[in-house]
Amino acid sequence: MNRAAMTASQKDFENAMNQVKLLKKDPGNEVKLKLYALYKQATEGPCNMPKPGVFDLINKAKWDAWNTLGSLPKETARQNYVDLVSSLSSSLESSSQVEPGTDRKSTGYETLMVTSEDGITKITLNRPAKKNAINVEMYHEIMRALKAASKDDSSITVLTGNGDYYSSGNDLTNFTDIPPGGVEEKAKNSAILLREFVGCFIDFPKPLIAVVNGPAVGISVTILGLFDAVYASDRATFHTPFSHLGQSPEGCSSYTFLKIMGPAKATEMLVFGKKLTAGEACAQGLVTAVFPDSTFQKEVWTRLKAFAKLPPNAMRISKEVIRNREKEKLHAVNAEECSVLQERWLSDECMNAVVNFLSRKSKL
Ligand SMILES: CCCC/C=C/CC(=O)SCCNC(=O)CCNC(=O)[C@H](O)C(C)(C)COP(=O)(O)OP(=O)(O)OC[C@H]1O[C@@H](n2cnc3c(N)ncnc32)[C@H](O)[C@@H]1OP(=O)(O)O
């Protein structure tokens, strides 16, 4: 009897492991850590691995989850794993029945909403609960959306944010997913990603317009220097706290901001982390126009719809004439900024700032 039950439980365990791979929705980090811990306990027994270092956030979280199970018997862990997967499958299935085929799914983007209407392709950053922080998936999706927009039949492309923020910049949890090659490999991969990401903005062929609906931080601010127009709500602020984060400027801002606002004002922003109001950013040339938040959407979209009616080829060619002679320089600046940042990400100053944010010791 016992033996039959154990065999059945082992089979259920294997089925459950397969079921986890087939889950349609991400169950979230907390559940994933529980699954990891139960799996390890069921297959290897109690945790006797050395505790990972303080900067190794992911492995430390995994270790904590496993260690918490103490001396739970392997068979019980196996059963608990099976029970957890079964509850998970039914809850995720039922939630997908409530909301069949949401918009996000139909567009094929997880972190963005992309629509095309009235000659305008609108790319909306769509992680409002995280203040539209740009995680690795979002970097890739923005690049994909820009590539698609460069070839579609729209005349202009708009980037905006959903919710109260435009974007809080780089998602600081990006730094916690350390690959087997360690933090050096992570820094190298991030520099490659950043260079490719910024390169897409440098090369974007159609008029690119930012509709800054709220506060903007970090990389969401620096790349504005590569846009053709920037419209802001009077609720928006512009903040590049690189020194506070132990980092250095990116998005070609070390070049574009100096050209736009001059070295003194650019230094205040990029080195001293001065946060600008929308009015100040407009006075310094980073923002094209500011509108009261109450009428922002109406006024901006009326203006953009009128722009989108202009002959698209003329707009594209005019942009080429204005921007092309700077392209080579911008790519060189981008490469240099990324290589400096690759080093910065390995510094104690940067690691401490990220750990402080993640352990909720500091915010901007
Ligand atoms: C690979 C390429 C790398 C390119 C490098 C680029 C450099 C940069 O972009 S530097 C800028 C990095 N950004 C920040 O330092 C902002 C950090 N966030 C904050 O200081 C605050 O969250 C805020 C001032 C933006 C908002 O504060 P508020 O009190 O209104 O809201 P919160 O409760 O803090 O946020 C809600 C929710 O969102 C999460 N979150 C917000 N911003 C980020 C972020 N940048 N990275 C990760 N997560 C972020 C925050 O943790 C909250 O999540 P929970 O509800 O789960 O706690």
Automatic annotation (TrEMBL):
Domain of life: Eukaryota
EC number: 5.3.3.8
Domain ACB stretches: 9-94
Subcellular location: Mitochondrion; Peroxisome matrix
InterPro entries the record matches: Acyl-CoA-binding_prot_CS (IPR022408), Acyl-CoA-binding_protein (IPR000582), Acyl-CoA-binding_sf (IPR035984), ClpP/crotonase-like_dom_sf (IPR029045), ECH/Chromodomain_protein (IPR051053), Enoyl-CoA_hydra/iso (IPR001753), Enoyl-CoA_hydra_C (IPR014748), FERM/acyl-CoA-bd_prot_sf (IPR014352)
GO cellular component, one term: mitochondrion
Identification of the protein by name: Enoyl-CoA delta isomerase 2
